[in-house]
Amino acid sequence: MKEQLISWGLDILGPIVAAAAAWALFKFGSWLKSKTQNERVRALIDIATRSAGTAVKSVEATLRPTIKKLAADGKLTPDEGSGLRSAAVEAMRRDMGPAATDLLQKSLQLGRDEFDRWLERQVEAANLTLSSKDLGLR
Predict the structure, then answer these.
(1) Which three-class secondary structure string do you get for the chain?
(2) Cα radius of gyration rounded to whole Å, the chain
(3) Which residues does 135 contact at the CB level (< 8 Å), separation at least 6?
(4) Percentage above 70 pLDDT, the chain
(5) pLDDT of residue 138
(6) 118-137 pLDDT, tens per residue?
(7) What pLDDT digit, counting tens, does each position of 50-96 carry?
(8) To 10 degrees, what angle do helices 2-70 and 98-108 make?
(9) Please, what is the average pLDDT of the chain?
(10) Per residue in 42-81, is it b (16+ CB within 10 Å) or e — as a string?
(11) In this structure, how many other beta carbons lie within 10 angstroms of the beta carbon of residue 100?
């Protein structure tokens, strides 16, 4: 009788325990995939932030003095500032490389125009962060 109850209990509890274990493994796999993806996106954003800083420094050191020298009053026009910002975005793209740029765009789930605006905002943030003086990129 006792053996029969144990056998009956195992017949009932066995599938329940197996289903619970499968569910727990599925949830753990989902959590691990999400965590890994979040870490990858965070790393790509860190790369983009560093690239923006490098691009702003590069533009500040190379292009801005030349444009200011050519300007009559020594100040940049809004078009020249926009050109410097575009140059910084392109330098940022080169620094990150096409693979990282494409992966970041896909990870952020942004279209081409939205991603370009996102890159411009990264350049503007780097411009404001790196120096208290206006680098002319805004």
Answers:
(1) CHHHHHHHHHHHHHHHHHHHHHHHHHHHHHHHHHHHHHHHHHHHHHHHHHHHHHHHHHHHHHHHHHHHHHCCCCCCCHHHHHHHHHHHHHHHHHHHCHHHHHHHHHHHCCCHHHHHHHHHHHHHHHHHHHCCCCCCCC
(2) 27
(3) 56, 59, 60, 64, 84, 127
(4) 91
(5) 47
(6) 999 999 888 888 764 444 55
(7) 999 888 888 888 877 777 776 667 677 788 778 888 889 999 999 99
(8) 120
(9) 82
(10) eebeebbeebbbbbbbbbbeebbeebeeeeeeeebeeebb
(11) 16
Beta carbons of 122 and 48 less than 8 angstroms apart = yes
Alpha-carbon dihedral sign for residues 112, 114, 120, 123: negative
Residue 76 token pair? 């940049």
Residue 88: CA atoms inside 13 Å, Cβ hemisphere, count? 36
For tokens 């050191």, what's the residue? 61
